[in-house]
């Protein structure tokens, strides 16, 4: 349930150090009130609707297991944002273009964010996804993966 930016969870000494030494903090402004309120509400939703947490992890496992059954390299990620490693940048972009033609939007991420031969497709699984939607996405991944010889 991201809204904007990030946060640090650590011991107080490290937090104090980062608050005074990291450049983006020194030259940035505070969050707009609407962002603060959105963060508060996101936390309230999670506290009030605990089933969302269970559902997101169930959906993430379902999706990653499906990718692995097809033979995709999903790395070691244990989050609802599994990387699907494609390889070379051109093929990574071709992969995401073909996914979009199959009604699946996913972001291709290449060098310099990752090594030149480790381009990947980034997906975000949510609690709101249904199993049917996730299966449709998996079917598209399987189809495109075979078309582009990413999987056999």
Task: Please give the structural blueprint.
Layout: H1 12-21, H2 23-26, H3 33-48, H4 51-70, E1 83-87, H5 89-101, E2 107-109, E3 119-122, H6 131-147
Antiparallel strand pairs: 1-3, 2-3
Helix pairs in contact: 4-6
Keywords:
single chain, 152 residues, 2 domains, three-stranded antiparallel sheet, 8% strand, globular
Residue share in β-strands: 5-15%
Q: How many independent structural domains?
A: 2
Question: Shape, please?
Answer: globular
Q: Order of strands in the sheet with the most strands?
A: 1-3-2
GO molecular function: pyridoxal phosphate binding; transaminase activity
Subunit structure: Homodimer.
Cofactor: pyridoxal 5'-phosphate
Protein name: Aminotransferase class I/II-fold pyridoxal phosphate-dependent enzyme
Descriptive overview:
The protein has six helices and three strands. Helix 4 runs parallel beside helix 6. It has 152 residues and is mainly alpha-helical. The chain has a three-stranded antiparallel sheet, covered by helices on one side. The chain folds into two domains: 12-48, no CATH class; 54-147, Aspartate Aminotransferase, domain 1. Residues 6-141 form the Aminotransferase class I/classII large domain. It comes from Gottfriedia endophytica. Homodimer. Its cofactor is pyridoxal 5'-phosphate. It holds the Pfam family Aminotran_1_2.
């Amino acid at each position: 349930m991201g809204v904007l930016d990030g946060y640090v969870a650590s011991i107080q000494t490290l937090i104090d150090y980062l608050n005074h030494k990291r450049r983006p903090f020194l030259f940035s402004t505070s969050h707009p009130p609407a962002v603060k309120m959105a963060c508060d509400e996101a936390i309230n939703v999670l506290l009030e609707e605990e089933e969302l947490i269970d559902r997101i992890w169930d959906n993430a496992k379902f999706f990653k297991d499906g990718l692995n059954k097809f033979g995709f390299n999903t790395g070691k990620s244990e989050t609802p944002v599994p990387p699907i490693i494609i390889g070379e940048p051109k093929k990574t972009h071709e992969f995401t273009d073909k996914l979009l033609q199959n009604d699946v939007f996913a972001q291709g991420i290449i060098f310099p964010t990752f090594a030149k031969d480790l381009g990947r497709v980034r997906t975000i699984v949510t609690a709101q996804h249904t199993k049917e939607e996730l299966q449709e996405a998996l079917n598209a991944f399987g189809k495109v993966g075979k078309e582009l010889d990413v999987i056999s």
